[in-house]
Design goal:
This protein has two domains: about 130 residues, no CATH class; about 200 residues, Nucleoside Triphosphate Pyrophosphohydrolase, CATH 3.90.79.10. Helix content is about 25%, strand content about 25%. The chain has nine helices and 16 strands. Strands 9, 10, 11, 12, 13, 14, 15 and 16 form an eight-stranded mixed beta sheet that branches. Strands 1, 2, 3, 4, 7 and 8 form a six-stranded mixed beta sheet that branches. A two-stranded antiparallel ribbon has the order 5-6.
Length: about 350
Protein backbone atom coordinates (compact mmCIF):
# COMPACT_ATOMS: atom_id res chain seq x y z
CA UNK A 1 0.00 0.00 0.00
CA UNK A 2 1.31 3.45 -0.87
CA UNK A 3 2.16 5.83 1.93
CA UNK A 4 -0.13 8.83 2.46
CA UNK A 5 0.83 11.78 0.24
CA UNK A 6 1.88 13.88 3.23
CA UNK A 7 4.71 11.49 4.15
CA UNK A 8 6.58 11.40 0.84
CA UNK A 9 7.53 13.69 -1.99
CA UNK A 10 5.29 13.90 -5.06
CA UNK A 11 6.41 12.30 -8.31
CA UNK A 12 5.36 15.42 -10.20
CA UNK A 13 3.29 18.55 -9.69
CA UNK A 14 0.67 19.70 -12.16
CA UNK A 15 0.67 23.44 -12.77
CA UNK A 16 -1.23 23.15 -16.06
CA UNK A 17 -3.84 20.76 -17.40
CA UNK A 18 -5.04 20.55 -20.98
CA UNK A 19 -3.12 23.73 -21.72
CA UNK A 20 -4.71 25.81 -18.96
CA UNK A 21 -2.94 27.12 -15.85
CA UNK A 22 -4.25 25.71 -12.57
CA UNK A 23 -5.13 28.07 -9.71
CA UNK A 24 -3.97 25.39 -7.27
CA UNK A 25 -1.05 23.11 -8.26
CA UNK A 26 -1.84 19.39 -7.91
CA UNK A 27 0.74 17.00 -6.51
CA UNK A 28 0.75 13.59 -8.22
CA UNK A 29 2.01 10.54 -6.34
CA UNK A 30 2.79 7.41 -8.34
CA UNK A 31 3.03 3.90 -6.87
CA UNK A 32 6.51 2.56 -6.24
CA UNK A 33 5.53 -0.64 -8.06
CA UNK A 34 5.03 1.17 -11.37
CA UNK A 35 7.77 -0.01 -13.72
CA UNK A 36 9.54 2.45 -16.00
CA UNK A 37 7.90 0.93 -19.08
CA UNK A 38 4.46 1.24 -17.45
CA UNK A 39 5.14 4.83 -16.45
CA UNK A 40 5.97 5.58 -20.07
CA UNK A 41 2.60 4.11 -21.09
CA UNK A 42 0.77 6.22 -18.51
CA UNK A 43 2.74 9.40 -19.27
CA UNK A 44 4.22 9.02 -22.76
CA UNK A 45 5.34 12.67 -22.88
CA UNK A 46 7.59 12.12 -19.86
CA UNK A 47 7.00 13.72 -16.50
CA UNK A 48 6.09 17.38 -16.89
CA UNK A 49 3.94 20.06 -15.30
CA UNK A 50 1.25 19.49 -17.96
CA UNK A 51 1.12 15.73 -18.58
CA UNK A 52 -1.27 13.98 -20.93
CA UNK A 53 -2.47 10.94 -19.01
CA UNK A 54 -3.18 8.15 -21.48
CA UNK A 55 -5.62 6.33 -19.17
CA UNK A 56 -8.95 7.78 -20.38
CA UNK A 57 -10.73 7.27 -17.05
CA UNK A 58 -8.13 9.36 -15.18
CA UNK A 59 -8.02 12.03 -17.88
CA UNK A 60 -11.81 12.36 -18.00
CA UNK A 61 -12.27 12.27 -14.22
CA UNK A 62 -9.67 14.99 -13.70
CA UNK A 63 -11.15 17.14 -16.46
CA UNK A 64 -14.68 16.87 -15.02
CA UNK A 65 -13.49 17.51 -11.47
CA UNK A 66 -11.56 20.66 -12.36
CA UNK A 67 -14.44 22.06 -14.40
CA UNK A 68 -16.91 21.51 -11.57
CA UNK A 69 -14.52 22.91 -8.95
CA UNK A 70 -14.20 26.03 -11.10
CA UNK A 71 -17.97 26.52 -10.85
CA UNK A 72 -17.49 27.45 -7.20
CA UNK A 73 -16.52 30.91 -8.45
CA UNK A 74 -20.21 31.53 -9.16
CA UNK A 75 -21.69 33.52 -6.28
CA UNK A 76 -24.76 31.24 -6.27
CA UNK A 77 -22.70 28.08 -5.81
CA UNK A 78 -23.22 26.48 -2.35
CA UNK A 79 -19.44 26.38 -1.77
CA UNK A 80 -18.66 29.82 -3.16
CA UNK A 81 -17.67 31.39 0.17
CA UNK A 82 -15.45 28.51 1.27
CA UNK A 83 -14.45 26.66 -1.90
CA UNK A 84 -12.73 23.29 -2.16
CA UNK A 85 -9.51 22.71 -4.08
CA UNK A 86 -7.97 19.55 -5.49
CA UNK A 87 -4.49 19.53 -3.98
CA UNK A 88 -3.17 16.03 -4.62
CA UNK A 89 -3.83 12.73 -6.39
CA UNK A 90 -2.23 9.61 -4.97
CA UNK A 91 -2.30 6.82 -7.58
CA UNK A 92 -2.24 3.86 -5.22
CA UNK A 93 -2.66 0.90 -7.56
CA UNK A 94 -3.16 0.03 -11.21
CA UNK A 95 -4.42 -3.10 -12.95
CA UNK A 96 -3.29 -3.90 -16.47
CA UNK A 97 -5.55 -5.79 -18.89
CA UNK A 98 -2.55 -6.47 -21.11
CA UNK A 99 1.10 -5.41 -21.08
CA UNK A 100 0.15 -2.20 -22.86
CA UNK A 101 -3.47 -1.61 -21.84
CA UNK A 102 -4.36 -0.15 -18.45
CA UNK A 103 -7.69 -1.38 -17.12
CA UNK A 104 -8.39 -0.05 -13.63
CA UNK A 105 -6.86 2.46 -11.25
CA UNK A 106 -7.33 3.20 -7.54
CA UNK A 107 -6.61 6.77 -6.46
CA UNK A 108 -6.90 8.87 -3.32
CA UNK A 109 -7.76 12.47 -4.15
CA UNK A 110 -7.10 15.22 -1.62
CA UNK A 111 -9.86 17.83 -1.75
CA UNK A 112 -9.99 20.44 0.99
CA UNK A 113 -10.68 24.09 1.73
CA UNK A 114 -8.23 26.66 2.97
CA UNK A 115 -8.03 26.71 6.79
CA UNK A 116 -10.68 28.83 8.46
CA UNK A 117 -12.08 29.27 11.96
CA UNK A 118 -15.27 27.28 12.36
CA UNK A 119 -18.11 28.64 14.44
CA UNK A 120 -17.53 28.02 18.13
CA UNK A 121 -13.85 27.14 17.67
CA UNK A 122 -10.63 29.11 18.06
CA UNK A 123 -8.19 27.37 15.73
CA UNK A 124 -8.44 27.43 11.97
CA UNK A 125 -9.13 24.07 10.34
CA UNK A 126 -9.79 22.78 6.85
CA UNK A 127 -12.90 21.03 5.60
CA UNK A 128 -12.19 17.97 3.46
CA UNK A 129 -14.07 15.57 1.23
CA UNK A 130 -13.64 11.77 1.02
CA UNK A 131 -11.50 11.16 -2.05
CA UNK A 132 -11.12 7.40 -2.54
CA UNK A 133 -11.99 6.64 -6.17
CA UNK A 134 -11.90 3.46 -8.23
CA UNK A 135 -11.38 4.57 -11.82
CA UNK A 136 -12.63 2.31 -14.60
CA UNK A 137 -14.40 4.67 -16.99
CA UNK A 138 -17.73 4.39 -18.73
CA UNK A 139 -19.80 1.41 -19.82
CA UNK A 140 -23.01 0.91 -21.78
CA UNK A 141 -26.04 -1.22 -20.96
CA UNK A 142 -28.98 -2.29 -23.10
CA UNK A 143 -32.59 -3.09 -22.31
CA UNK A 144 -33.53 -5.45 -25.15
CA UNK A 145 -37.28 -5.88 -25.54
CA UNK A 146 -38.35 -8.49 -28.09
CA UNK A 147 -41.79 -9.52 -29.28
CA UNK A 148 -43.07 -12.35 -31.51
CA UNK A 149 -43.64 -11.20 -35.06
CA UNK A 150 -47.34 -12.08 -34.93
CA UNK A 151 -48.06 -10.50 -31.52
CA UNK A 152 -49.96 -7.21 -31.25
CA UNK A 153 -49.92 -4.33 -28.81
CA UNK A 154 -48.06 -5.08 -25.59
CA UNK A 155 -48.70 -8.82 -25.76
CA UNK A 156 -45.85 -11.28 -25.20
CA UNK A 157 -43.06 -8.73 -24.89
CA UNK A 158 -39.96 -10.22 -23.30
CA UNK A 159 -36.64 -8.89 -22.03
CA UNK A 160 -33.31 -10.53 -22.83
CA UNK A 161 -31.11 -11.07 -19.77
CA UNK A 162 -27.63 -12.53 -19.58
CA UNK A 163 -26.53 -15.08 -16.99
CA UNK A 164 -22.80 -15.11 -16.33
CA UNK A 165 -20.17 -15.34 -13.58
CA UNK A 166 -19.59 -12.07 -11.72
CA UNK A 167 -16.76 -12.73 -9.31
CA UNK A 168 -17.03 -9.30 -7.65
CA UNK A 169 -20.46 -10.40 -6.41
CA UNK A 170 -19.21 -13.89 -5.58
CA UNK A 171 -21.63 -15.25 -8.16
CA UNK A 172 -21.25 -17.77 -10.96
CA UNK A 173 -24.73 -17.12 -12.39
CA UNK A 174 -25.54 -13.42 -12.05
CA UNK A 175 -28.65 -12.27 -13.94
CA UNK A 176 -28.36 -8.86 -15.61
CA UNK A 177 -29.10 -6.96 -18.79
CA UNK A 178 -26.33 -6.95 -21.44
CA UNK A 179 -23.55 -4.45 -20.78
CA UNK A 180 -19.94 -3.77 -21.64
CA UNK A 181 -17.11 -1.31 -21.13
CA UNK A 182 -16.49 1.53 -23.54
CA UNK A 183 -13.41 0.75 -25.59
CA UNK A 184 -12.81 3.70 -27.83
CA UNK A 185 -16.25 3.47 -29.44
CA UNK A 186 -19.09 5.95 -29.26
CA UNK A 187 -21.84 5.13 -26.77
CA UNK A 188 -24.14 3.84 -29.51
CA UNK A 189 -21.30 2.06 -31.28
CA UNK A 190 -20.33 0.25 -28.09
CA UNK A 191 -23.96 -0.67 -27.42
CA UNK A 192 -24.40 -2.05 -30.94
CA UNK A 193 -21.22 -4.10 -30.59
CA UNK A 194 -22.38 -5.56 -27.26
CA UNK A 195 -25.77 -6.48 -28.72
CA UNK A 196 -24.10 -8.43 -31.50
CA UNK A 197 -21.59 -10.02 -29.13
CA UNK A 198 -23.94 -11.01 -26.31
CA UNK A 199 -27.34 -11.41 -27.99
CA UNK A 200 -26.42 -12.07 -31.61
CA UNK A 201 -28.63 -9.20 -32.80
CA UNK A 202 -27.58 -6.93 -35.65
CA UNK A 203 -28.65 -3.34 -35.02
CA UNK A 204 -27.92 0.02 -36.53
CA UNK A 205 -26.66 2.66 -34.14
CA UNK A 206 -29.58 4.92 -35.08
CA UNK A 207 -32.03 2.22 -33.96
CA UNK A 208 -30.83 2.47 -30.35
CA UNK A 209 -32.68 4.82 -28.01
CA UNK A 210 -30.60 6.52 -25.32
CA UNK A 211 -33.12 6.58 -22.48
CA UNK A 212 -30.85 8.64 -20.22
CA UNK A 213 -30.79 11.44 -22.78
CA UNK A 214 -34.55 11.23 -23.26
CA UNK A 215 -35.07 11.51 -19.51
CA UNK A 216 -32.60 14.35 -18.91
CA UNK A 217 -34.12 17.67 -17.89
CA UNK A 218 -32.11 20.64 -19.13
CA UNK A 219 -33.89 22.88 -16.64
CA UNK A 220 -32.53 20.86 -13.71
CA UNK A 221 -29.91 22.86 -11.79
CA UNK A 222 -27.72 19.77 -11.39
CA UNK A 223 -27.38 19.61 -15.19
CA UNK A 224 -25.17 22.70 -15.01
CA UNK A 225 -22.38 20.47 -13.71
CA UNK A 226 -20.06 18.73 -16.12
CA UNK A 227 -21.13 15.13 -15.61
CA UNK A 228 -22.25 12.43 -18.00
CA UNK A 229 -25.90 12.04 -18.97
CA UNK A 230 -25.92 8.50 -17.67
CA UNK A 231 -26.65 6.31 -14.67
CA UNK A 232 -23.94 6.18 -11.98
CA UNK A 233 -24.32 2.80 -10.20
CA UNK A 234 -21.88 3.36 -7.32
CA UNK A 235 -21.04 7.05 -7.19
CA UNK A 236 -19.77 6.87 -3.60
CA UNK A 237 -16.42 5.45 -4.70
CA UNK A 238 -16.45 4.63 -8.43
CA UNK A 239 -16.40 6.83 -11.53
CA UNK A 240 -18.30 4.35 -13.72
CA UNK A 241 -21.18 5.86 -15.69
CA UNK A 242 -23.59 3.85 -17.82
CA UNK A 243 -25.81 5.27 -20.57
CA UNK A 244 -28.88 3.04 -20.76
CA UNK A 245 -30.07 2.17 -24.25
CA UNK A 246 -33.31 0.60 -25.43
CA UNK A 247 -33.41 -1.85 -28.32
CA UNK A 248 -36.79 -3.11 -29.56
CA UNK A 249 -36.95 -6.04 -31.97
CA UNK A 250 -39.61 -8.21 -33.57
CA UNK A 251 -38.47 -11.81 -33.90
CA UNK A 252 -40.02 -14.97 -35.22
CA UNK A 253 -41.20 -17.31 -32.50
CA UNK A 254 -38.59 -19.80 -33.62
CA UNK A 255 -35.90 -17.13 -33.27
CA UNK A 256 -37.05 -16.26 -29.74
CA UNK A 257 -37.06 -19.91 -28.75
CA UNK A 258 -33.57 -20.31 -30.24
CA UNK A 259 -32.25 -17.47 -28.08
CA UNK A 260 -33.30 -19.17 -24.83
CA UNK A 261 -30.29 -20.73 -23.18
CA UNK A 262 -27.96 -19.75 -26.01
CA UNK A 263 -24.29 -19.51 -25.00
CA UNK A 264 -22.55 -16.31 -26.11
CA UNK A 265 -19.66 -14.04 -25.13
CA UNK A 266 -15.98 -13.86 -25.99
CA UNK A 267 -14.52 -17.03 -24.52
CA UNK A 268 -10.94 -15.86 -25.11
CA UNK A 269 -11.68 -12.97 -22.72
CA UNK A 270 -13.13 -15.25 -20.06
CA UNK A 271 -16.77 -14.50 -20.89
CA UNK A 272 -19.21 -17.36 -20.36
CA UNK A 273 -22.67 -15.96 -21.01
CA UNK A 274 -26.05 -17.64 -21.34
CA UNK A 275 -29.16 -15.82 -22.54
CA UNK A 276 -32.46 -15.83 -20.70
CA UNK A 277 -35.80 -14.44 -21.90
CA UNK A 278 -38.20 -13.10 -19.27
CA UNK A 279 -41.69 -11.60 -19.76
CA UNK A 280 -41.54 -7.81 -19.56
CA UNK A 281 -44.06 -7.80 -16.72
CA UNK A 282 -41.69 -9.92 -14.58
CA UNK A 283 -38.40 -8.34 -15.65
CA UNK A 284 -38.19 -6.08 -12.59
CA UNK A 285 -38.32 -9.11 -10.32
CA UNK A 286 -35.84 -11.18 -12.35
CA UNK A 287 -33.35 -8.31 -12.50
CA UNK A 288 -33.85 -7.10 -8.94
CA UNK A 289 -30.15 -7.53 -8.08
CA UNK A 290 -28.93 -5.67 -11.15
CA UNK A 291 -28.84 -1.88 -10.79
CA UNK A 292 -28.64 -1.50 -14.58
CA UNK A 293 -31.80 -3.52 -15.11
CA UNK A 294 -33.79 -1.70 -12.44
CA UNK A 295 -32.72 1.72 -13.72
CA UNK A 296 -33.40 0.80 -17.35
CA UNK A 297 -36.84 -0.61 -16.55
CA UNK A 298 -37.72 2.48 -14.50
CA UNK A 299 -36.70 4.74 -17.39
CA UNK A 300 -38.61 2.56 -19.85
CA UNK A 301 -41.83 2.71 -17.85
CA UNK A 302 -41.50 6.42 -17.11
CA UNK A 303 -40.69 7.41 -20.68
CA UNK A 304 -43.40 5.14 -22.05
CA UNK A 305 -45.90 6.81 -19.74
CA UNK A 306 -44.88 10.18 -21.21
CA UNK A 307 -45.24 8.87 -24.76
CA UNK A 308 -41.52 9.13 -25.53
CA UNK A 309 -40.94 5.45 -26.33
CA UNK A 310 -41.85 4.58 -29.94
CA UNK A 311 -43.94 1.54 -30.77
CA UNK A 312 -42.30 -1.78 -31.52
CA UNK A 313 -40.98 -1.56 -35.10
CA UNK A 314 -43.00 -3.61 -37.62
CA UNK A 315 -39.94 -5.08 -39.35
CA UNK A 316 -39.02 -8.64 -38.35
CA UNK A 317 -35.37 -9.38 -37.55
CA UNK A 318 -33.78 -11.88 -39.92
CA UNK A 319 -33.16 -15.28 -38.38
CA UNK A 320 -29.50 -16.16 -37.69
CA UNK A 321 -27.71 -18.41 -40.15
CA UNK A 322 -27.19 -21.03 -37.41
CA UNK A 323 -30.93 -21.25 -36.90
CA UNK A 324 -31.65 -21.55 -40.61
CA UNK A 325 -29.15 -24.37 -41.06
CA UNK A 326 -29.95 -26.06 -37.77
CA UNK A 327 -26.25 -26.14 -36.84
CA UNK A 328 -26.85 -24.84 -33.32
CA UNK A 329 -27.78 -27.81 -31.14
CA UNK A 330 -28.66 -25.92 -27.96
CA UNK A 331 -32.25 -25.30 -29.07
CA UNK A 332 -34.87 -26.32 -26.55
CA UNK A 333 -38.07 -28.13 -27.39
CA UNK A 334 -40.54 -25.56 -28.76
CA UNK A 335 -43.14 -24.36 -26.30
CA UNK A 336 -45.99 -25.22 -28.65
CA UNK A 337 -44.99 -28.92 -28.45
CA UNK A 338 -44.03 -28.91 -24.78
CA UNK A 339 -47.23 -27.36 -23.46
CA UNK A 340 -49.67 -29.83 -25.10
CA UNK A 341 -47.62 -32.69 -23.65
CA UNK A 342 -47.90 -31.20 -20.18
CA UNK A 343 -51.64 -30.69 -20.60
CA UNK A 344 -52.02 -34.27 -21.87
CA UNK A 345 -50.13 -35.64 -18.85
CA UNK A 346 -52.29 -33.60 -16.48
CA UNK A 347 -55.46 -34.81 -18.25
CA UNK A 348 -54.32 -38.44 -18.11
CA UNK A 349 -53.48 -38.08 -14.43
CA UNK A 350 -56.92 -36.63 -13.71
CA UNK A 351 -58.62 -39.46 -15.63
CA UNK A 352 -56.77 -42.00 -13.49
CA UNK A 353 -57.95 -40.20 -10.33
CA UNK A 354 -61.56 -40.31 -11.56
CA UNK A 355 -61.29 -44.03 -12.35
CA UNK A 356 -59.91 -44.67 -8.86
CA UNK A 357 -62.80 -42.77 -7.28
CA UNK A 358 -65.34 -44.81 -9.30
CA UNK A 359 -63.73 -48.08 -8.16
CA UNK A 360 -63.98 -47.00 -4.52
Amino acid sequence: MSAPPSTRDPSLTLTHFQGLALDTPIDIFLPDTLAASQLNLLLPDDISSDPAFTFPALQHWLSRSLKNLARQQNARHPHHKIPYSLRAIDIQAVDWFTKTKLGFMKIQAKLETDPYVHEGEKEAKVDWLPGAVFLRGGSVAMLIVVQPSDAVGENEKQVIFTVQPRIAAGSLAFIEIPAGMLDGNSFRGAAAAELKEEAGLEVKEDDLINMCELASDSSDESSSETIETAMYPSVGACDEFIPLFLCQKRLTRRHMQWLKGKATGLRNEGEKITLKLVPLSRAWREGARDAKALAALALYEGLKGEGKIPDMPPEVEAEPADLKTGSDKHEMEPEETVMPCKRRRRRESRELEIEAEEVD
